[in-house]
Known about the structure:
By secondary structure, this protein is α+β, with helices and mostly antiparallel strands. The chain folds into two domains: 3-179 and 310-389, Aminopeptidase; 181-308, 2-Layer Sandwich (Alpha-Beta Plaits), CATH 3.30.70. 33% of the residues lie in helices and 24% in strands. The chain is built from ten helices and 18 strands. The protein has helices spanning 3-18, 29-41, 110-118, 120-125, 147-157, 205-225, 272-291, 318-327, 341-346, 371-389, and strands spanning 46-50, 57-63, 71-76, 95-97, 100-102, 132-137, 164-167, 175-179, 181-190, 194-195, 239-247, 253-254, 257-266, 298-308, 311-312, 332-335, 350-353, 368-370. The strands form five sheets. It has a six-stranded mixed beta sheet with strand order 1-2-6-3-7-17. The two termini are 27 Å apart.
Amino acid sequence: MAYNDRLDNCREILGHLISYDVLGGQSNLTILDYIIGFLNDRQIEYYLVPNEDMTKSSLHCRIGPEADGGVILSGHTDVVPVKGQDWHTEPFTLTARDGKLYGRGSCDMKGFLACCLATVDVFKSAILKKPVYFAFSYDEEIGCLAGPALAKAIKKHYNEKPAYAIIGEPSMMKVVTGHKGICVLKTTITGSAGHSSRIRSEVSAIHVAARLIAWMEDKMEALITSGKLDYRFEPPHSTIHAGMIQGGIAPNVIADKCTIYWDTRVIPADNVSDIVAGFETWCSVYEKELKQRFPGASIVTQEDHPPVVPLGTDRNAAIVQLVTSLVGDDSTQTVAYAAEAGQFAAEGFGTVICGPGDIAQAHRANEFVEESQLSRCLDMLQALAHYLSDEKEGQ
């Protein structure tokens, strides 16, 4: 297929992918049916990694021989909502204008999926010495929920050992070697209701919440001064942030319930579990003090979703050397957002992020990807096919 035809094909595929309004948390079987049909038409065997109730599934497949050293291309099928956003085009219809392709997910990250599918024929026609794999997940947008199972399934399913993974999150086709990990938590405080004049006798859940948030601020300051700083990131330290607080029914009523939704984002040198354990230890001591005033007082913390591990690939790693050569740019960067890359790295795959589009366009109204970015991604995948076909380079 000629290059211009491949770009046109990519644009057509992207239009189909965007038409499926699969939000994070919803069933992705409709968009998966389209992808399965696409693979079936090209006689590519695929495998599913479903959730427990079979309403969602990840997919993986291999193109090329059963040989060690292949490369995984991975992305997610779900997108974030459009409700309440000021869209100037129909968000689930691809709209082309001035070299930009508008639509929900065009940037994050159906553009990359479209590039992968548009390059299937290139991979199939090449005489690959090492295989390429597709790995498409669900529920990335609500906590990278399917990434670990998908990465484990690929590792377990194939007799050979894939070496590398390229996660196609929007990076302007720059090679990303690191992202922070994240854990989102919910802390529920139970106190005792009463007249506000009795604040010294009762346990105000809101006042307790304020103390907990003060702990978060103090802990973050301690992380900053600990010396474990990673200047690849901005800020170069782990963070703790309370994003939502709910509690109380009136100004003159002591609140007996309050909930804090918070997150901690960690650099690769820090561990989420250590931060959460420190918080829970402090809360346990504080809770005993509160029970002296009200025996029913409690502080309970739960994970809103499982932690997402950080990515910290070494700048000199082989995967970095490979992908920088494929894109023709030696520079690397890190990103503040969490992604499935750390989850693939945790399974032993050398992993980087590299994909079309600007993260600044993700999750907002009038999301777009530039056609030039899709062209650069197609070029990278063409170069990858050459690399996997070259007996000397592919070893």
